[in-house]
Design brief:
With 280 residues, the protein is α+β, with helices and mostly antiparallel strands. The protein has twelve helices and 14 strands. A hairpin with a 2-residue loop joins strand 6 and strand 7. Bound molecules: flavin-adenine dinucleotide (FAD).
Length: 280
């Protein structure tokens, strides 16, 4: 299929992009790796695409005051090969190679992945596990939304159609930061059947501040709060059991809910072992 007709405008600045998005049925174009497919399948039919590629300052990775800031136009490949990300945001470094294939990672952007909010995508879960936040520019100025409030439902976020996501921010990893990541996909590079991104702090012989964000098991990335508490108490078996309360995965084209629930338990045991390991 081919897309319905649409107009195209290249934004000259962030303000210009926001001006263009004020019109009816306009949509931001970033890497185009998800948007173009939805246009071609006629799942979406905007009247205008606002191309933000090339806007100055939106593809920077910076570590400032204990925070890693990743500009929305940072390509997946750029993040994958960034020494700053490897050192200061190791969970994101672990997740990057699992996103699609090199050709997709060369074009796809961090902002596009977070804005699209596919429930089986890796980065939204990483942002949630890290307790990060999202910087947004819109017609009324700039605002920041924490990850726990950003994801609202299936492909639904705190962004309005008139907003541009400009950056994400996550706390820079410290010496006591522990991270874990695992997913099950039919083939490497496919969206996950189920996945888990996790972050914690080493405390004594155990863990504190455990955050577990599952993906591919609901309409959006899901915190498993009872399992977090059990893992913080050092009880992996109880954490796995708690997933019966924390998760209610629906059946989808990849697997039944029952299979996904089983996979979630397997992933939690793998990630619990990773969280015991100090960072290299
Ligand atoms: C074959 C294939 C396999 C893939 N596998 C995976 C995978 O395993 N895991 C995974 O996570 N992803 C996967 N993807 C998706 C890929 O990561 C996309 O790049 C990403 O989801 C969207 O990023 P983009 O920059 O291409 O955004 P686009 O496609 O340009 O945009 C996607 C949506 O986000 C909006 N948007 C984009 N940027 C902004 C912004 N800055 N502000 C506001 N709105 C914005 C657009 O308007 C659009 O609605 C795959 C894609 C393909 C084609």
């Amino acid at each position: 299929m081919k897309p319905a007709p649409f107009a195209y405008a290249k934004a000259r600045s962030l303000d210009h992009a926001i001006e263009l998005l004020a019109g009816a049925e306009a949509r931001v174009l970033a890497g185009g790796q998800s948007l173009i497919a939805t246009l071609n399948m006629r799942l979406s039919h905007p009247s205008l695409l606002v191309d933000i590629n090339g806007l100055d300052g939106l593809d920077r990775i910076a570590v400032v005051n204990g925070t890693v800031e990743i500009g929305a136009l940072t390509r997946h490949a750029q993040a994958e090969h960034s020494s700053e990300i490897a050192r200061h945001a190791p969970l994101i470094a672990l997740a990057m190679p699992q996103i699609g294939h090199p050709a997709i990672r060369n074009r796809g952007t961090i902002g596009g992945s977070i804005a699209f909010a596919d429930p089986a995508a890796e980065l939204p879960a990483c942002l949630l596990a890290l307790g990060g936040d999202v910087e947004i520019a819109g017609p009324s100025g700039k605002r920041t939304v924490v990850a726990d409030d950003f994801f609202k439902g299936l492909f639904e976020t705190a962004l309005t159609p008139h907003d541009v996501l400009t950056a994400i921010r996550v706390p820079a990893a410290g010496a006591d930061t522990r991270v874990g990541f695992a997913e099950v996909a039919r083939r490497h590079g496919d969206y996950a059947m189920a996945g888990l991104a996790a972050c914690a702090r080493a405390a004594g012989g155990g863990l504190s501040n455990v955050r577990l964000a599952f993906f591919g098991v609901g309409a959006m990335p899901v915190r498993a709060r009872q399992a977090e508490a059990a893992l913080g108490a050092g009880d992996v078996d109880r954490a796995v059991g708690a997933l019966a309360h924390d998760l209610d995965p629906p059946d989808d084209v990849q697997a039944t809910g029952a299979v996904k629930r089983h996979l979630a338990g397997v992933l939690l045991r793998r990630v619990a072992a990773q969280l015991q390991e100090p960072r290299p």
